[in-house]
Design brief:
CATH topology of chain B: Peroxisomal Thiolase, Chain A, domain 1
Mean pLDDT of chain B: 94
Shape of chain A: globular
CATH architecture of chain B: 3-Layer(aba) Sandwich
Order of helices and strands of chain A: HEEEEEEEE
CATH class of chain B: Alpha Beta
Structural class of chain B: alpha/beta
Number of domains of chain B: 1
Distance between the termini of chain B: 20 Å
Shape of chain B: globular
Number of strands of chain B: 11
Largest interface: A-B, 34 and 36 residues
Low-confidence stretches of chain A: 1-5
Radius of gyration of chain A: 16 Å
Largest sheet of chain A: 5 strands, antiparallel
Number of strands of chain A: 8
Strand order of the largest sheet of chain B: 3-2-4-7-1-8-11-10-9
Number of helices of chain B: 13
Strand order of the largest sheet of chain A: 6-5-4-7-8
Mean pLDDT of chain A: 91
Number of domains of chain A: 1
Radius of gyration of chain B: 19 Å
Strand content of chain A: 35-45%
Oligomer: heterodimer
């Protein structure tokens, strides 16, 4: 996805630890680490559980459903690669973890703290798919 | 062993600050800041045996490279962030005998040259952050939005803070944006939106310049020309790596509380003992956040606490008296040192503008970093 200026959006610099997450996005699946010891979910990916420190983590599929914790509509872009306005948001997934994302396809009137949201996948580069979220109508 | 609370700030200096300083680099402007602070202190490079120097954004190598470049044979290195944390750390180093005289300095020039993009130090690199188009205003807007929602605080209450700080800068002949006001809350609200709820004038500026401090023991300070400013207590706390995890209200709101508790305990001071409040003003709501996090008022009560002139010069809690990063200057990391420089000048009674009458104590707080200063 290129802007008028020809700049491309920054794409994730993937590591061995985070590769499964991004490969899941390519397939349209939102993955998250789950602790085999305490069943807690861990995001962003790390080498051990944030609750019980067990190194025994597995990748599982997330519901992709959650709630809007907070958001901001951006009018001054990070770089010209981003078309304004765009919405940066924090969502809390039903599994109990939070992630930063972009809220897409939402009417300004729908965007409010506490709104129900659902993951939608967007291709931003030939090999890169991002897990964005959209507001689920009541 | 020298007793706690005896390390003393004897030199404090800002170079000229401007949107652009032609011909300067981060290294030359940092050197100018060091020379200015040593001259202010009545000391020379030969007296220096400790450094915490950050030319530009070079976190890893700044002090080592600069110490060598200055020709200092061997030196203690501080690694805390410039500003209040670096002062607290240097004080501990002096009081424990690791070194005797420390220079803290930072400067920046020719770093933000691509004006189509936000400043490079505001652009995150983490793979779960950068791809969403996040930058510093967005990072801080997220928690401000959540706070406004939770406590039913209005845009006007938030932006009032920016008008106070920008008016301090308007009156300060050393501020990059001197004479640009006066500002009302309505003027802040009328500026273009950057990252909702932050308008252009709710946000810090970007500029170029350098700042430096010199600290030594109270014993050595006695023979030096300026009114001595003691480091009474200091600490720093963190909630995790910056620009990596979602900056929600729950993660960020109490940033600095633990540090403030420790600093006040060490200093033996109460909150009410402080005369001057040099708080990091990168965005307008942050000032409200500090008064809550530092236990000056209840959580959710900060907007009422700052209202009605309380944080203006002449009020009980005068904040950011040089105009801060919104109006005086924002130079990447050296702006952190500017908060301390301004607190020192207030305690010496030599502020370029907005002098707080009979100021004896100051708090400098920046994100999770806190230091308490007192005039001797």
């Amino acid at each position: 996805m290129e802007s008028a200026g020809g700049l491309t959006r920054p794409v994730p610099q993937v590591s061995a630890l985070t590769r499964p997450f991004w490969e899941g996005c390519r397939r349209g699946v939102l993955l998250v680490q789950r602790c085999c010891s305490c069943s807690g979910h861990v995001f962003a990916p790390q080498d051990f559980c944030r609750s019980c420190q067990s190194p025994d983590l597995e990748w599982v599929e997330s519901s992709g459903e959650g709630e809007l914790v907070t958001y901001t509509t951006i009018w001054r872009p990070q770089t010209p690669a981003f078309e304004v306005p765009y919405v940066v948001a924090v969502v809390a997934l039903t599994e109990g973890y939070e992630m930063l994302t972009n809220l897409v396809d939402a009417e300004p009137g729908e965007i409010r703290v506490g709104a129900k949201v659902q993951v939608v996948f967007r291709d931003v580069a030939p090999d890169v798919t991002l897990p964005c979220f959209t507001v689920v109508s009541a | 062993m020298i007793s706690p609370g005896t390390a003393t700030i004897v030199g404090a200096f800002n170079t000229k600050q401007a949107r652009v300083l032609p011909g300067e680099t981060s290294y030359t402007i940092t050197l100018a800041a060091i020379q200015g602070a040593l001259a202010d202190a009545g000391l020379g490079l030969g007296d220096v045996d400790g450094l915490n120097v950050l030319p530009g954004p070079d976190y890893r190598h700044g002090s080592n490279a600069f110490g060598y470049a200055l020709g200092i044979p061997t030196f203690w290195i501080g690694t805390a962030a410039p500003g209040p944390a670096s002062v607290a750390e240097a004080a501990l180093a002096i009081e424990s005998g690791m070194c005797t005289t420390v220079v803290i300095a930072s400067g920046q020039a020719q770093v933000h040259t691509d004006k189509d993009s936000v400043a490079p130090w505001t652009r995150p690199e983490n793979e779960f952050v950068e791809c969403w188009g996040l930058m510093t205003p967005a990072e801080f807007a997220l928690s401000a939005r959540e706070y406004m929602h939770r406590f039913s605080v209005t845009q006007e209450q938030i932006s009032y803070v920016a008008s106070v700080i920008r008016n301090n800068g308007h009156r300060n002949p050393e501020a990059v944006y001197h004479g640009r006001g006066p500002f009302t809350t309505e003027d802040i609200l009328a500026s273009r939106m950057i990252a909702d709820p932050y308008h252009l004038l709710d946000c810090c500026t970007t500029g170029e310049g350098g700042s430096a401090l010199v600290l030594t023991s109270a014993e050595r300070a006695r023979d030096l020309p300026n009114r001595n400013v003691r480091v009474l207590g200091g600490a720093w706390d963190s909630w995790g790596p910056t620009y990596t995890h979602p900056p929600t209200y729950d993660r960020t709101a109490m940033w600095g509380r633990k540090a403030a508790d420790a600093a006040f305990a060490r200093a033996g001071l109460d909150r009410a003992d402080i005369d001057v409040y040099e708080l990091y003003d990168n965005f307008s709501w942050e000032i409200i956040r500090y008064f809550e996090a530092l236990r000056y008022c209840g959580v959710g009560e900060g907007a009422d606490f700052v209202a009605g002139g309380a944080i203006e010069v002449g009020g009980r809690y005068p904040v950011v008296t040089d105009g801060g990063t919104m109006s005086h200057s924002h130079t990447g990391e050296s702006q952190r040192i500017q908060r301390v420089v301004q607190a020192v000048r207030q305690l010496r009674g030599t502020s370029a503008a907005n002098q707080v009458a009979d100021a004896e104590t100051a708090i400098v707080a920046q994100i999770g970093d806190v230091v308490l200063l007192g005039a001797d």
